[in-house]
Amino acid sequence: MKRRWPQFLALSLLIVITPLALGDPPAASVPNVPAGTAPAAPVPWSSLTPQQQQILAPLKNKWSALPAERQQRLQRGAARWALMTPEQRARARQRLQRWRRLTPQQRDVIRQRYQAFQKLPPAEQQRIRQLFKRFQQMSPEERQQLRQRWRSMTPEERQRFRERWRTQHPPRYRP
Predict the structure, then answer these.
(1) pLDDT band at residue 35, thresholds of 50, 70 and 90?
(2) Which residues contact 111 (CB under 8 A, 6 or more apart)?
(3) Which region holds residue 88: left if phi is over 0, alpha if psi is between -120 and 50, else beta?
(4) What is the reported pTM?
(5) How far apart are the first and last CA of the chain?
(6) CB atoms within 10 A of CB 72
(7) What per-residue string of b and e applies to 112-142 under the rule 16 or more CB within 10 Å gives b?
(8) Could you give phi then psi for residue 106, rounded to 5 degrees?
(9) I want to staple 78 with a disulfide (CB 3.0 to 4.6 A). Which of 12, 35, 55, 139 is the partner?
């Protein structure tokens, strides 16, 4: 039974951070239950698809004891996992391993940034995703040069850079 606990923890984390790793799944493929809209209704194990039951099998014996909100999150995560390609699953596993190596403080920062990102209007989220894609498309050498340039800046230079950036790339929303 002790061996199941690490599997349970890994599965739970994987399901929770997969949306971070892969972006939003296609809207029609995953049940959309907005967070915080109404009290969460428990999800009976029998209502899960066979695929979801297989993915969530380590939790079967504890399923009814889980809070309803967590059951719903796990159900959505299992639905996303089922839709992933083997490459996406491998990438999600790698990201889970990286997540495990983070300190609790680093995880908190990531959660806070994710929550702030989720509060942005969709157009602004898309703009940020496009900028990130541009960064990812840079060669490793270009990214390294950019990082080195950033690290070599003084705090004042970084502040001026941010101000110039904001002037050249104004937000397309009003908070």
Answers:
(1) low
(2) none
(3) alpha
(4) 0.52
(5) 49
(6) 18
(7) eeeeeeeebeeeebebeeeeeeeeeeeeeee
(8) -65, -40
(9) 55
